[in-house]
Protein: Nucleoside diphosphate kinase
Amino acid sequence: AIERTLSIIKPDAVAKNVIGKIYDRFESAGLKVIASRMAHLSQAEAEQFYAVHAARPFFKDLVSFMISGPVMIQVLEGEGAIAKNRDLMGATDPKKADAGTIRADFADSIDANAVHGSDAPETAAVEVAFFFAGMNVFNS
Ligand code: CMP
Structure:
């Protein structure tokens, strides 16, 4: 099915100047960028976005990393977009990510892991709505 997924290029990858290289991975795999914006998240925004992880021991570090610099946020659309984007990203921990994945090529650590991608249709819908009002999504 044609799906939409929420993708974030995290502060480490934005600082490395590889937004374009990561967009090329999406486009070469048949995913289309149908919404995008750069933002420097507030602590409240990052805490709300990652609320599902609030009880995890890594939550504080995750939030402080995500607000350490600007991020690039996009909606990707395409056939099986959610799983396809997760395949492109590779494992959460870049040390475990397959060769040729975004995290293997651009990430430094489990916190500075270059990208976020929605993990299921339900979370994708919530995450897309969190960052983009309907009028800012363009499926031409
Ligand atoms: P992300 O896909 O953005 O979702 C939550 C983030 O928490 C994850 O990527 C990692 O960057 C970060 N994180 C840090 N430690 C862990 C952990 N032990 N398990 C899962 N995610 C972690």
Observations:
- The longest strand covers residues 71-79.
- The mean pLDDT is 97.
- Helices lie at 11-15, 19-28, 43-49, 59-66, 81-89, 102-106, 121-131.
